[in-house]
Every structure is written in structure tokens, then in C-alpha cells.
Amino acid sequence: MLASLREEVLEANLELVRRGLVLYTFGNASGIDRERGLIAIKPSGVPYENRKPSDMVIVGLDGCIQEGRLRPSSDLATHLILYRAFPQIGGVVHTHSRYATIWAQAGSDIPCFGTTHADYFHGAVPATPPLSADEIETEYEANTGHAIVRRFQGIDPLSMPAVLVAGHAPFTWGESVASAAHTAVVLEEVARMALHTLAVNANASPISQAMLDKHIYRKHGRAAYYGQDKKGES
Amino acid sequence: MLASLREEVLEANLELVRRGLVLYTFGNASGIDRERGLIAIKPSGVPYENRKPSDMVIVGLDGCIQEGRLRPSSDLATHLILYRAFPQIGGVVHTHSRYATIWAQAGSDIPCFGTTHADYFHGAVPATPPLSADEIETEYEANTGHAIVRRFQGIDPLSMPAVLVAGHAPFTWGESVASAAHTAVVLEEVARMALHTLAVNANASPISQAMLDKHIYRKHGRAAYYGQDKKGES
Amino acid sequence: MLASLREEVLEANLELVRRGLVLYTFGNASGIDRERGLIAIKPSGVPYENRKPSDMVIVGLDGCIQEGRLRPSSDLATHLILYRAFPQIGGVVHTHSRYATIWAQAGSDIPCFGTTHADYFHGAVPATPPLSADEIETEYEANTGHAIVRRFQGIDPLSMPAVLVAGHAPFTWGESVASAAHTAVVLEEVARMALHTLAVNANASPISQAMLDKHIYRKHGRAAYYGQDKKGES
Amino acid sequence: MLASLREEVLEANLELVRRGLVLYTFGNASGIDRERGLIAIKPSGVPYENRKPSDMVIVGLDGCIQEGRLRPSSDLATHLILYRAFPQIGGVVHTHSRYATIWAQAGSDIPCFGTTHADYFHGAVPATPPLSADEIETEYEANTGHAIVRRFQGIDPLSMPAVLVAGHAPFTWGESVASAAHTAVVLEEVARMALHTLAVNANASPISQAMLDKHIYRKHGRAAYYGQDKKGES
Fold first, then answer.
1. Which residues of chain A lie closer than 8 angstroms to D114, CB-CB?
2. Contact yes or no for D214 and A140 at CB 8 A
3. pLDDT above 50 for B232
4. Is B75 in the active site?
5. Helix (H) or strand (E) holding B84
6. What is the ipTM of this complex?
7. Given a cut of 90, is residue A225 above it in pLDDT?
């Protein structure tokens, strides 16, 4: 079981590279085995070439390393907070992908300007407020997680599987690590299109609530009719 | 005959992928056999790798599946409305290609700023108005088609083989599905250049009517003199 | 001799494709044998794959076809005007490359914001004014050439080997067709950087005359000291 | 020893090409052997294909060629000034990479809008003022170096391993030529993201001093905890 989790996590990390979301080693993906409470995560700062499933580090929800010769991603503490706060999720991805990072740097939610966005995110993708100096100086990565969780009060993390950490970059998640990586790719495209939508029309309006609801339910949920399965792509 | 239509439709779908117009499965192409009244269309939400002509779904103009094991594209109803309203066309393409989608999200026609545009589109590429909540909630895809057809009152669909659906993305068409795919590629380039033309010069003027007429007739129609055939590229 | 000219012209056309300056068949390159007064030019509207030197069309300076089974580029008449007006040049290239075309569509000279530009173009790259309806309706391609020549009154075409035809796209030239293609590639980069320079700083200043002079003479002319030859890259 | 320095310098030059930072021959990298006071640098204006370590030119800190059949990069004098002024550095890279050059052309420091930036550069990346006509006309390349050194009064070159030369392009450096090339790649990404951050939010704020300090010390210095080594990536 951990063998297949390790493979999924490695594969998700490689998907980020193939899709151009990662420069050098700027990104990490993890997946969780909820029954055992174990997480597989990319090691810190190592190149992606020739990585093997056995290089993934296995840690508990408390952050203690259970297996692995390499140090885990330095963003591990953020992943852990997300797994604890969002029990529905099975995978977490963090990248510095260009356009999602641009919105994070601008400290701005990404408005939902179209159906490409609405197919994945039920409304504007939220940005956190900046961390305080205190939050940065002590347990920085954990506090990043706490800032995300605070921002998601009242938001269902599976209807909104992404966040922009102000002055930093995006995190995405999903039922599996593969789905978190897929969402990271779509978020990058959506972020890029939103930026240029405002360049064409600085007063562009977000799509209507009716459109928003239509698209999220077209692809996801019980009444989904996109794709070959009854329950859509998910 | 349907064998060759299936192949053309598959090939057009693959051309969209090769030209970078498609992320994951966000796009679909169809072609029609006007004599038999049968349409071949991409199945919904399936990856493009290893697709075979036999995977294309055959439907009638009423939308009933005639042949095929897979569910047709969820945008089928929009294609059908276009085939019924525009009897001159033989193929329809829908993508979420980045820059055409940006103009659709901005809800803005693409002005004709140059000859690259004028070689294919006889004037500004029109955007539809947004759909109402009613139109979205019932028969959304068919209503998308109706909104396009209303917007094209008084416009010849072969002189203007593209539309931007507000808050959504473009559709293109042509005498064949190959030509609809080719037009989708050119539309993307034209949309990209128009956006940045406004960045250089917010007051950029569309080209003159004389230039517009010159270029459309240089490539298309009886007096065409571009390319190796008497009738131009078409 | 024409064999090698044909090969150079084909190679220049392929270089435009390899460098991403050409979508489908939107571009053409030609070279001239000044002694014989013969020009080799790409045929009109044909794909680049599997092109052979023998496909290049040979025409005289009067535009009459001397050799070749295919119709020459529809922009031939513009090339001819340039060869007649600028006796120093040995090759002409026309593309719809994205960023140079954007400046042409904006109807705006490209200011010289840096040394990348100054290494090739001694000042702002000039845009022509738009053609009149009369000029468009009769001998459009020749009149495009005349508009360029008028714009270059008092400008040395080898110090400024490029022009933007308003509402259309760029032409470049040089001592050889290879050099005209190289310049087209650099023009595209320079056009792209200039556009975004204005985005960072709407009041960005062109570089000083001293800098302009320094760079053009560093790479070109008798005192050049860039590269391995006494006379620089040219 | 020089054999391995030549190889490192060649490899850094090739890395710039692989990462898309170099058009034609617009860039150069050098490395220094501090014990012997010898520098290996790319030859001027030669293509990168089929380059061998033996093509690198060996010069002393006085600029005299010690070994090599080819003329050294025309920017050698700038490299020499940097090696003399910054004794901590082991390699220098110069490119005309698109987005860093855009900021240089705009004459503008790159504000630190996020952690991708802060991981490498401890604050805004500085731009020099323009050179005077005198500085350009005599010993232009050396004066470029002097302008950089003047701009760095009070700045630690290893905490800020990059500069934008106004109206020209960036230089980067580091403990080794490999690290200087790596920094050039990251600078390009950071420059690109900063430009678009301002497009989303013209009033975007740089990150806080606490964040700036956190990230530079997370990756670099004695307390670094990113990557697999005790001392981070450096």
C-alpha cells in the first residue's frame, strides 16, 4: 500500500515537471494513507531526474519520519496542517508555478472569469493575508498552514481545492495526489487567463452564480454528465 | 465514408493538441456528412493518446447516438445547433485555447488590427452576450448554440468562421473539420496579437474596410491569388 | 550559382520556421543574384515540410518567372520593389512573427530601449503609415513596397534592416538572405522586450545616441570588435 | 585544474542555452581560479554547438590572454572588474535573457514581491544608472563594470548576486560559475513574475523584512534547512 502511495506521489511530482510548473526543485507533492495516518512526500531540494519511489519520505501526521534516508520537503509542516484540517483530502501539491505565484505575489484572489475556472473552482480562488513577523519568525511553515485554514473558514476545500499564500505561491489539494497535481496545472492556466482578461477589460465581470453552479455540477458531484463516468472526472 | 469522416475528425482533434490549443481534454471537434445527416464527434472527457477513429461517436442531427460505445462530447448540443443553423459548414471546433478564451472572458469582440486577422475573418470576431440564468439552468449547451446563432443574424458564417461565447471560450467552424481546426489555430494567434496590440497602443485602429476586403478576397473566393490553387487555401 | 542561392533561400525559410516565426505558411524569404538580376523566392502558400531547393521559384527583377513549376509568394511584388530601391541588399524576409506584427498593428515605431536592439538597428525601427484605399485596391503588394521605400528616405537600409508595415507585419533584409532571416529573429525578440519595457515603465527612455553609436559600431563596420572576424558578425 | 574550470565554464554556458536564456550568441559565462588568478571565458560571438572545453579562452586578471586560439567575449573587461571588486565570487554570467533585460531597459530595480525572489536575492535587484557619453565612448565594457561596483557600495554581492545594467541587460555571479548560471535562470523567472505582479496589482507591496530574512536564511548560511546539506543549496 505504501508502495503504491510512493509511486503516486512520485508520479504527481513528475507531472508537475512535465507540465512546466516547476523550475529546478521549486515544488513538492505529497499523498496520505488515511487508514494508517502516513504521508509520502518528496525529499527537500533534490533534482527530479532518476528519482525512485523509494526516495519519497514517509512521515506520520505528527511530522516524525517513519521511513526514508532523505530529509523531507521543507514545506512538510504546511502539508501536515492541511491534512489535519481537511480530512476529505488525500493529496497536497505546492508549486511556484508562474501565474498562480503572480496572483499570490499581488495578494489578490483570482476572480472566476470563465468556465475553465468554474469547472474546477467554485468561485474566486482565495488569497491569504500576509503573515505577521511573529508568524514568520517562529514555525513559519506551520503558520503558513494555519493562515490557509483560517482563510478557509466556511469554504468547502473540495469545492475550492486551491489557495494563494500571499507573497509566496499556491497550494492545491484533492481527493488524491494525482488530482491535486491536475488541479495545480489547471490553476496555472486559469491564473494566466485571468491576468490577461483584466488586460483586455479592466472591468471584466466574474461569471454569474448560475454559470458557476452549472459548471461545478456538470463535472463534479452526483449529477455530473462530463466524461465517461456517472460521477464526472473526479 | 463515415470511416474517412471519423479519421478527419480524429485528425482535427489531434491537430488541436499538437498546436497547443488543448489542456488535458478541454476541447472537441466534429464533422458532418451532410448527405447522410450524420455527425462524428470526439467522446467526452477522454485523453487524446491512443485514440482511434472508431472511438469517435456517430450521432444524428437530432443528437441520437447511431454508433459508438462512448458518450459524446458534453458540448454536442452546441455543435448540433450550429450544423442546423449554418448549412454551409462541414466541421465545428470548440477549445479553451488561452487567448481566444481571454477575449471571451472579457466579453469583448476581437477588433481586426491587421492582415493576419483579415486573411481569415472579415471584421471583428464577435462575442455573444452572457446567457441568462434561465438559459444556463435548462438546456445549457443548446442555449449556448442559440446565443451564437442569434449573434450571427446578418453575418455570413463562412466569412466569419468564429465566435467567442461570453464567459466561456471560442467555437470555430468551416467547410470541413480540418478547416475549422486550422481556423481555431489562427484565431488563437490573432487573439494573442490583438491583446498586445492594445498594450502597445490603447487607441490602435482597426484596419480600413479596403484592407479588410482586399485580404479576405486575396485568400478566399473566386478572385483569390494566394497559394497554388485558383481558389486560394479554402 | 542559382543552385546555391536556391539552397540559401530554402534554408532561410526553414530557419524562420525553426525559430517559431512562422505559423502555417505565413512568411517568405527571397535572395538575389545581383550579377544575373535573378531572385529565388518561396512558392506561395505551400507547407514547409519536404520542401526542396528546386521548389524555389526563380524570377527576374521585373517579376517574370524564369524557372519553377509553382506560383511565387504573393508578396513577390514587395520584395521586387525593395531589391530595386536598396541595391546594397541581397535578401528579403517577410513574416507575421508575433511581436513585430503587434507593433505593426499598433502602427508604432519600436523605440530603441537597449543594446540588444542597438546591436542590429541604429535607432527606432520605423513603421510605415497605413496605405490609402487606392493603394490597396490596385497593385497592393507593389504599393506596400513603395510605402516602405518612401518611409526610408534618408535612412540607410543596412543600418536599419527592418520595417513595420502598418496594419500588416514586418519586412527585414540584409546583405544575404541568411542575414535577413537572422535579423527577423532578432527583431522579434527586440519587439517583444520593447512591449514589456513599456509595461514596466511607461516613460522608459530610449538609450542615448552615444550608446546607440557604440553598439552598432561594436558589431558592424570597420572598427567592429565583436565575434571572431575583424568586421564583426556581418 | 584549468581543465575542470574550462569544463565548468562550458557547462554553464550550455546551461544558459538549455534554459532558453540565450538567443544566438547573446551571453557569456566565465569562472576564475583564484589561486592562480586565471579566468576561463567563452570566446566572442561563436555558436554554442560543438563547443569544446579547449575553446574557452584563459586570461589573467589583467585581461591578457594566457591560452586560447579564439578572441575572448567582448564583455571580458566587465567580468574582470567584477572579479577584482568582489573577491568572494568564483563565476560571472552575462545574458540578454528576456525579462531581466526588460527591467534593465526600464531602468528599474526589481522589487522583491515573493519568496521565489527572496530565496536568492536579499531585497530588490538593483539597476545601475545609465552610463554617460564619456563612459560609453572610452573603455565602455570596463566602465560598465565600474558602474556595477559603484551601485554595490554597501551591498554584499553574495546576498545580492545580480545586477541590471541600465539600457543593457543583467549580470549575475556566485561562488562558482555553475551557481552564477543557476542564479541567472532564477533571476529571469523572478523578473518575469514581478512584471506581471504589477499588471495584476500596480500597488503590490514588496514582502516584509521578516519574510525576506526568513527565506534567505532558510536556503543559505549556517542555519539553512532547505535541501539535503546542512548549509542549504550553496
1. 101, 104-105, 167-169
2. yes
3. no
4. no
5. helix B76-85
6. 0.94
7. no
